[in-house]
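ZP: hey, is the adenosine-5'-diphosphate complex queued? I don't see it on the tracker
AM: it wasn't, my bad. submitting now with these inputs:
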Amino acid sequence: MAAPLPSDVGLRVSLAVEIPSDVAYIERVVELVRHPCEELAYDPHQLALNVPVALSEAISNAILRANNEDPQKRVLVRAEVDTRRLVVDVQDEGEPFDLDDNIRDATDPENIEREDGRGLFLMRALMDRVERFDANTGAPPGNVVRLTLSRA
Amino acid sequence: MAAPLPSDVGLRVSLAVEIPSDVAYIERVVELVRHPCEELAYDPHQLALNVPVALSEAISNAILRANNEDPQKRVLVRAEVDTRRLVVDVQDEGEPFDLDDNIRDATDPENIEREDGRGLFLMRALMDRVERFDANTGAPPGNVVRLTLSRA
Amino acid sequence: MSFTIKKEGEIVVVDVEGQLIVGNRQELKQKVIDELERGERKFLIDFAQTGYIDSSGLGVLVSLSKKIREQGGELRLANLNDDLKTLFELTKLDTLFQISDTRDRALASF
Amino acid sequence: MSFTIKKEGEIVVVDVEGQLIVGNRQELKQKVIDELERGERKFLIDFAQTGYIDSSGLGVLVSLSKKIREQGGELRLANLNDDLKTLFELTKLDTLFQISDTRDRALASF
Ligand SMILES: Nc1ncnc2c1ncn2[C@@H]1O[C@H](COP(=O)(O)OP(=O)(O)O)[C@@H](O)[C@H]1O
Ligand SMILES: Nc1ncnc2c1ncn2[C@@H]1O[C@H](COP(=O)(O)OP(=O)(O)O)[C@@H](O)[C@H]1O
């Protein structure tokens, strides 16, 4: 790998990956997004924890919760990476859902022994921002879950 | 790295990288394009020879021959990779040039001891196709050099 | 990504190589449950060679721990790197598991 | 990317680590010319740790070889992997250079 970059260089990477609704693809997509962040010298903890975990969560929700593993439905992952920040959009073909209604405090004693329900919580904990929009294509339009992380 | 992929999976990666006209960026851009090809299990020789060398040539021509290392001018590299093929467009801000007029047979005894002039020759030798278009932005529009390689 | 199971004395030790995520957590779950049904009661999962763990991987650890405790057994963890430690702290799962810094210390703790 | 220069008997050996490309070929050229001006005449470039070479890297090898020959010296190459061999064959530069499979054989060939 080349030497670390100062934060003001004009390097900007956009990436788009489309996959079928199959969890077997998640690891590969995570690696495709993580790699340009590594080339742009993001912090090792962001590369090993924040980016892969938050992105895995968003993609597995798209596959499992929105698309119900329907092989006809696709998940589209778009990333914009530069030396300031990473923005990733994960687009599904599911019904709209509300982020805040669905997020649970995973550390609450009531939840701590639950098997599920840590995905949105971890996304919020590991990213600077997590947002949900209606996609502007498709019928139903599907959700876009947007993760934003400043480069450290 | 995950296991090799069959050639019919629905994984498609688009990548766009913009850099200033400085040869110091070439190695990094090559690595950014090479990596998704590796994830999509392109042949090791394509990953180690065809892709990096042909792409380096196209980018260094854009920086040196078209943009004359003018720091105001940018080079835009767009790649589309799937399990069938890689298509990379390298866009500069220079005057139009003719590919066939400029390509030289590097193996000709007259040329073999020359220091320069092997770039277009190697691009042609290492890619399935090399094309040049006018870019559809900018004034002058600039060149788009398109490299196409089928996955082996 | 793979899971290697070894026996160290009375303890079943599982090495997690690569990621523990939604795509493979079921395999880990099944392997451990098989051992539990075979009568094993002491389990150690070693994360020395692990990359990242997602929420469904954490979920499998929680549910395995519960299942093993119900049978009077115990599941302990070892070798979490700094990032995995952070993950357990964020989710407070570090309070649910006994976690050792090294495999030897974990083995000795049973 | 870096170039390491060592002396083996009478021979100046240069190891090319990483790529030899437009961004760093000038550094290689200058290092070899410095040695040539210091009076060295036998040069071996070892590519065992090299990634890829672009046309400007090849160009530097050609021009160094010429400069060294003009001074009555010689530049030889060693340890081209299969992909680098293909590159030299495509450009017929394998006919211009004496290329050895191993460093020892190259050193013995002078
Ligand atoms: N992309 C999505 N489409 C529809 N519903 C979603 C999506 N993402 C999350 N949800 C809803 O939010 C809930 C909580 O998600 P999460 O915190 O990731 O936990 P889990 O997926 O384990 O239930 C999900 O069970 C689902 O109901
Ligand atoms: N992107 C470009 N814009 C303008 N001219 C170009 C471009 N690429 C190649 N050329 C022309 O083609 C010639 C041959 O290119 P090449 O074979 O790569 O060898 P070299 O760059 O070493 O001269 C260049 O010298 C230049 O005149």
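AM: back. The radius of gyration of chain A is 16 Å.
ZP: great, adding it to the tracker
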